Amino acid sequence: MANHKSALKRIKQTAVKAERNRFYKTRIKNITRAFKEAIESGNKEEAQKSLLIINKNFHKFVTKGILKQNTASRKVSRLHKQVNALN
């Protein structure tokens, strides 16, 4: 256990950030799962709706510092390719 005041504060901050990151990582997994289910079923309209949600959320997560810009852009780009391949 930490003995210094600053170390105790860091432990609290780490716990808060870990909880926050867990929420966002779960959100990312859930919205991509919905997209993949739409792709597997061949429903292009549903996939496009999911893609709009993914694009909005990923770039919002970039501003919050959860994802890096290039990571979000790369993931969205790959998902766009999957939607375009449904034709």
UniProtKB/TrEMBL annotation:
An MF annotation (GO) of this entry: small ribosomal subunit rRNA binding
Cross-referenced InterPro entries: Ribosomal_bS20, Ribosomal_bS20_sf
Pfam family name, one: Ribosomal_S20p
GO biological process entries: translation
NCBIfam families: S20 (TIGR00029)
Function as written in the Swiss-Prot or TrEMBL entry: Binds directly to 16S ribosomal RNA.
Official protein name in the record: Small ribosomal subunit protein bS20
Organism taxonomic ancestry: Bacteria, Pseudomonadati, Campylobacterota, Epsilonproteobacteria, Campylobacterales
